[in-house]
Amino acid sequence: MTTSMDTGSVTWRLTPDLLGILDNTGVFRYTNPAWQKTLGWLPEEIENRSFFEFIHPDDISAAQEAFADIQTGKPILKFENRYHHKEGGYRWLSWNCVPDEKLFFCSARDVTDEKEDQAALKTRDAEAKFREQFIAVLGHDLRNPITAIGAALRLIGREPQTDKARGYMETTQHSLDRMSNLVDDVMDFARARLGGGLEIAADDNVLVQPALEQVVEEVRLGNPSIAIIEDFRFNDFFRCDPDRIAQLLSNLLSNAITHGNNDKPVDVSTYEDNGNFVLSVANVGEPIPQAAMEMLFQPFTRSDVRESQHGLGLGLFIAHEIARGHRGSLTVSSDLEGTEFNFVMPLTPADGHETDI
What we know:
single chain; 357 residues; alpha+beta; 5-stranded antiparallel beta sheet; 5-stranded mixed beta sheet; 11 helices; elongated; disordered N terminus; disordered C terminus
């Protein structure tokens, strides 16, 4: 088989693989048209030049070792390095090269996309590991000391205390509760944004009204100066996660109390509308600015928050994710008359069966 026959063959001209013939000094003697398609180089720009001129600087050392091996008669198989593209940057090539007397016959395949896919997979694996570690720290390493402090406060509370000490303990307990709520919010955020979605544990035939009534009572006790008027007209069984819907209501109520006019009541209502369960929370106050409306359900977003409010800006984001998890929606309208949030979810899907969350 002669060199002239190789370079004139149909395979030589049409194969997508890069073919080349090197002499024993590493200089290209012949190359096929695939070089131009893959790397942009014309034959006359490659031939009579050493292959080392095209290699990424970080890959030269390994290429020198491989070239030394092939000069001893050892073939090179699936050897990868980066070659410079004429228009800039580098492409990953996988080489096979065999010696034949004083010449070396080489073929290379562009594996850049495969290398990038492998790198992306490693990145995703690393991100998944980070997510697991992050959620584990929140769920275990932070919760444990909070639980321990709470237990210690309960034990101390059984002992005789001065009025001043009891006041300190109540303040500490409130701070501890707030810490626990912040951990809950960050864990929900981590699951929603880093873990592939908020966890929704839906049950069939749930009566959600008792859970909503409990939330209203808890918020009312924590804010005795603010009137909360409830109008629960929906009291049927349906498929949902009652704890999550209660959490959604709690977040909406907290938002209404934080941003509303505390001299006016907050209205909470439930009802059925065209086969949908609707939960509404409305308050009177300054309208939400348009710029804030556009980012209202984004995490870590707080608009005109009072100095006494120490949240992370995750409440509405989590409420929105809970709505999505129930195949529903959370919308808001706001004007001079007040602000109203509406959570709407279908009681049955389009095929008439119970919603499968």
